[in-house]
Amino acid sequence: MARLLPGALAAGLAAFAAGAPAQPVPAAAPDATRSAAPPVEDGMARRMQACTVCHGREGRATSAGYFPRIAGKPEGYLFNQLANFREERRHNAAMNHLMRHMSDDYLREIARYFAGLDLPYPPARPHGLTAAQQAQAERLVFEGVPARGIPACTACHGARMAGRLPAMPGLLTLPADYLVGQLGAWRTGLRNAAAPDCMGEIARRLSADEASAVARWLSAQTLPPGTGPEAATARPMPLRCGSAP
Question: Is the distance from CB of 168 to CB of 74 less than 8 angstroms?
Answer without folding.
Answer: yes
